[in-house]
Amino acid sequence: MKTLKTMKTKVLFGLMLLALVFSCSKDDEPAPTPEPENQKPTISFVSPTANSGDLWNIVDVEVNAADSDGSVAKVEFYANGVKVTESTVSPYSFNWNSKDVEDGSVELKAIVTDDEGATATASISVDVKNVLLDYNIFDGYLSAGADIMNFTYITSPAPEKEILYFAEIPEGAFAQTVQRPAEFDGETFDVHFVGYYMNNDGNDGKITSYHGITPGDFSPVPSTQANYGNELGDANVTFTNVPDHDYAMIFSGGNTNPIAENTQRTLKIYDQFDLGYVYLKVGDAGYYMAAPFGVGDHELPLNAMNTSMDSHTFADNGSLSTASLLVQGHTGPSRYSPAVSIYRENIALNGNPFETKFHVPKAEDQVFDHYFTNARVQENGRTYVHEAYQEILSSMTKLDATFEANDKKLSQLDITATSMDDFDWLGVTFQVSASDTFTFVWQSYSGDDTISFPPIPTEVVTATNEVFNSSDIVFKDANVTMLFEDRDNYNGYDDFKDIRFGRKTEDTELKTRLYVFGQL
């Protein structure tokens, strides 16, 4: 028979065992699996890229967008922080009108959002250039007057030669920003200026064409002129005690014949320049006099001229038709400083070589800062010119060139122009007789020989009473001159264009200029 104490013990043990069982069962149950963290989507630009160059008109924008653990809900596109559009369907792309922003650097941004709201961003910087040409022409750049009409227009390159823009230029300054037409997608274009001059004897015109122009400014700057200051009046000089001589250069005059006793010459006097220079040559000897003059009458005895001169010789051994030489002395360091002519000669040679001797003041006399030389010869139907802006030439360098052209209408012009030497640009000048009463000049500038006569806008044809009608102008009736030019301060045609269009300052002092031209 069990005792009460024994029964209590068994009950207590059972309860403890039961608690232990329940406790062990709870601890062995596995913990619930946590939900995976949402992964951000990814996005990157396919086009354009940072290396796409200038963009214009409608631009194809496309991105790659993906979500590894879900789906892409949308992609939003922004330009300079302004939302442009959004896309919810792959491929994620759209046609962006770049004309909605100003030209310059533009930030394109794309934001992708996935199905759980996570986002990612991609951005690039691109250059937008929708301005084709920004005209800013100063008053005086073009000829003006009641009987003069001026026009400008832009064409696509050959062979299309579509007119992209046209305007009549009023007298005075002209400012106009030309946007790129939607239909034009080219990187370069041609710019033309037309001048139409009406007079009693007939009509004259001029077309100037610049080929291969890139978008940007047309802001030409006025040409730098020698600063002589204000004109004060004339010095009237009578020469006395004139020695015997063979050659006379008097006050930069064009007549170099010997002068007689009591010869009179006039010298313009300016507040910044009053130098009178006289040079006489007697055989192999030279004499000069350099003195300031004031306004009024003067008597200048020439029996005490300075003989302190350096002798120079210029020679060319070619079979020359003609030759000319000009030497000038500049009073300041710039090529635009006031100058006087020291020596000038023009001679017909009939196939013979050319040689001449002349003199300049010695350096220690400090009459001039530096010298300029222009040498020009005609040989085998070509005219060669060598200009030196810092030295006196003893011989000349000749650019080698060949010019050919087919006998076609100007609208079908086919020109071949080649040179064995480097040159900065090709310039072509046409003296065209369109009728008995109308002639015009076409000047064309190009980095190579890929030039062609531009179409004439109907507005020009109408304004000029149809005398400017290229379909009636025959090339064989034109007097055509072609010119290669090389300057040491230009780095090719692109440099020439940038300086001519005011996009670059001509900050390099010119030392040498070579050119060759000939008629076809």
TrEMBL record:
InterPro entries the UniProt entry points to: Ig-like_fold
Lineage top rank: taxon: Bacteria
Keywords of the record: Signal
Range of residues in the leader sequence: 1-26
Any coiled-coil regions, as ranges: none
UniProt-recorded name of the protein: PKD/Chitinase domain-containing protein
Natural source organism: Flagellimonas zhangzhouensis
